[in-house]
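agent> fetching stored inputs for the adenosine-5'-triphosphate docking request
agent> found them:
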Amino acid sequence: MAGVYGLLPLGLKVYRKIENIVREGMNSIDGQEIMMNVLQPRELWDETGRFSEISEIMYQFKDKNGKDIGLAPTHEEQVTDIIRHHIKSYKDLPTSLYQIQVKFRNEPRAKSGLLRGREFMMKDMYSFHVDEKDFENHYKKVGEKYLDIFSKIGLKTKYVAADGGIFSKYSHEFQVICPTGEDTIYYCDKCDFAENKEIAKVKNDDKCPKCDGKIIEAKSIEVGNIFPLKNKFSSAMGAKYVDNNGSEKDLIMGCYGIGLTRALAAIVEVYFDQENNMMIWPESVAPFDVEIISLEKNKEAEELYEKIKDKIEILYDDRDISAGEKFAEADLIGAPKRVIVSEKSLKSGGAELIDLKSGESQIVEIEEIASVL
Ligand code: ATP
Ligand code: MG
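agent> prediction call returned; pasting C-alpha cells
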C-alpha cells in the first residue's frame, strides 16, 4: 500500500548506521533509551483529548472486545504516563527518555517513498524539567546536538523557526535544502536566520531582519523537529513533582524528533547523481566502505579481499557477469571507494583504486592497498 516500505539488506545497513549515530548522540546528552508500545488504549489519549483531536492521522480501530485502540503516531501520552509513575521529586530531575521506533500516521498524501511514509521510523525524545529555565538550556543543547548528528550522517541542515502545531506556539525544524523537498523556508545568506514559510514575515530577496544579509527562498526536507511542550501534557495528565519547598508543581516538558527513514531518503535525494545514475554515500553511513571488483576472478583480488575483509566493510564482486554490469551495479550501490583488479591493472603494477567523491584514480600495488585504504 502507499507509504509502506520495508528495508532490504543494503538499505538496512545504511539505516542501522544512521540509527547508531543518532543513538550515540542522544546518549551523549544523557538521554536514556527506552521502548514504548505501538498499541495504545483510547483512555490514555482521552486524558489529553487527542484520541478525537488527531483521529485523522491516528490509525484507530476496535479490537475483538470492542475496545478502542490506536496505533501511536507519537508518544507524549505514554511517556507522560510512565513519568507520572516514576518521578516524584525535584531530585529526580531533569531526565530525558528516548526511543527509536516505528510510527504509524494515516498521511493523506503518502508519496515520495520513504520521505513520507504511513509507517516509518522515528527517534523521539522527551525531556522533563523543574522549570522553564532548565528546559530552555536543554532545548538549546539538543538543538546543537541535532546539527552535529545531521552533519555526521552527511546532511547539512538549517535550524529553522517554525509553527508549533498542536503542541506549542513555536518549534524548530531541521531542514535540508533540496529542490524535491515539500517545505519552503526563507534563510539568510549571511547569518543563521531561517524561518519556515508557514510563519515567515520575510520573502525572497528581502533584507535579513538580523543582519545586512539577503533572504533566500528554498525548497527543503524536514528531517527533525523539536518542540517546547511547557506543561501541556503534564497538567492534563497530572504529571507533577514536589519542589524543594515541598509544593507540587507541573513538570515542564520538551519533545524532540528525528525522522530516521526520512533522513535516509534525504541522503539519497542529496547525494544521488541523476546525470551519471550514480550514488556515492557519505562515508559514515555507506553500506560498504569499499567495493572490490574482480574482473576476471583474479587470484590477487581474492587474496586482497581475504586479507582486509575483517578490517573494513567490503563488498566483493567476483561474479560471472560482464564488467559493464558490475560497474553499473557498483554505481548504484554507492560504496565511496572502489578497487578494480584486472589483468590490465595487474600489468600496470597493481589494482586501480578510485575515490568516487573526488573522482581520483590511481594504480596501487596490491600489497599497499590495505594500508592506503
Ligand atoms: P511533516 O510536516 O513532514 O508531515 P511533521 O511535522 O508532522 O512532519 P513531526 O511530528 O515533527 O512530523 O515528526 C518528527 C519527524 O519525523 C519529522 O521531522 C520528520 O523527519 C519525521 N516524519 C514525520 N512524518 C513522517 C512521515 N510521514 N514519514 C517519514 N518521516 C516522517
Ligand atoms: Mg514537524
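agent> quick read of the result: Residues 347 and 363 are 10 Å apart (CA to CA).
agent> awaiting further instructions
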